[in-house]
Amino acid sequence: MTTYYKVYIIILNYNGWQDTIECLETVLRNNYPNYQVVVVDNNSPNNSMEYIKAWAEGKLDVWMHPNHPLKDLSRPPIKKPVPYVFYSKEEAEQGGNPELESKLKDKIPEDITTKEPLIFIQSGKNRGFSAGNNIGIKYALKKDDFEYIWLLNNDTVIRKDSLSKLIECVKSLDENTSPVGTVLAYYDLPDKIQALGGKFNKFYALGRHLFVLKSIEEAIKEYKEKKVKIDHVIGASMLLNKKFLKEVGLLDEDYFIYFEEIDLCERGRKKGFKPYICLNSIVYHKEAVTMNEVVGTEFSDFFAMRNRIIFTKKNNPFYLPFVYLSFIVSIIKRLKRREYKKAYNIIKIILGKRNYE
Predict the structure, then answer these.
(1) Which domains does the chain have, with CATH numbers?
(2) What is the reported pTM?
(3) pLDDT for residue 304
(4) Which among 148, 126, 150, 179 has a CA at the least distance from the CA of 11?
(5) Residues 51, 52, 56, 62: is their CA dihedral positive or negative?
(6) Cα separations (Å) of 119 from 40, 57, 325?
(7) Helix, strand, coil proportions of the chain in percent (round to 5)?
């Protein structure tokens, strides 16, 4: 008899309610029968949570191009209303209201594959990727009725079998294999790889995605033939088992953005865990849509570099001189390009400045 272990799917939203709704439309029609979806809003200033609630109540839908190759993953829309429970951060971290959640199970539309109501959580403050996801994880840990937690970016869409194939794969692995990632393909180029996990250079504290822009079939074939070993799973789609969470802990909230999954995998490795990619589970990623306003700016530049120092001091302190040397090279390059503010930011990071101004 097949056992379907419960999976919590945690989706973090910040100002991206349109993407979150499209993601939910795909998640709620997947063919794995035992899961519950938790959407955490990181205090979006654009009233994202109100839009997401309106969608669940059947008052709102989002437009997508009728010729998009992935439109069938989220169309036609699932029946509404979709029952939900809304919690504050404090209520969620205490395990919510199980009695209320149980009462809503009978009201879930037939075409939705879970029999658990949606959980919406308002964080009350944007403290970054780790802190937002940790709220959802704490909610699940307090209820303690699950075996896996799937952290899924809100700017992704999944296939109907993405979760079932992921769990099928995980069941064949030992419990010290965690986190487990999926094949990540580009949303607008769905036959091309965004990443099959990542490699990490400890000397300069730089990570890179593997097999970028190769075809899915070509990448998977090469991955198998070369018996590739990854250093980390990409955080856009990352499955964690309960043992990992209890022994390794939650995401480190000191990073705010960038390096969270690399740090988590490194901490896991020190506890005897190893990351892994399930090659038969595919997720399509819009590539940092939520960060479009900041990627490549002084803000993102600051955190990307600052976190290299945080990570190295925490995990590989002997490599710190090499990281600082790479920073000096970066300062020189920015000065040559007359990017004086970016060069100044790097100097502040070297001097120990913790926050962006």
Answers:
(1) 7-287 (3.90.550.60), 298-350 (no CATH)
(2) 0.94
(3) 85
(4) 150
(5) positive
(6) 8, 13, 46
(7) 40, 20, 40
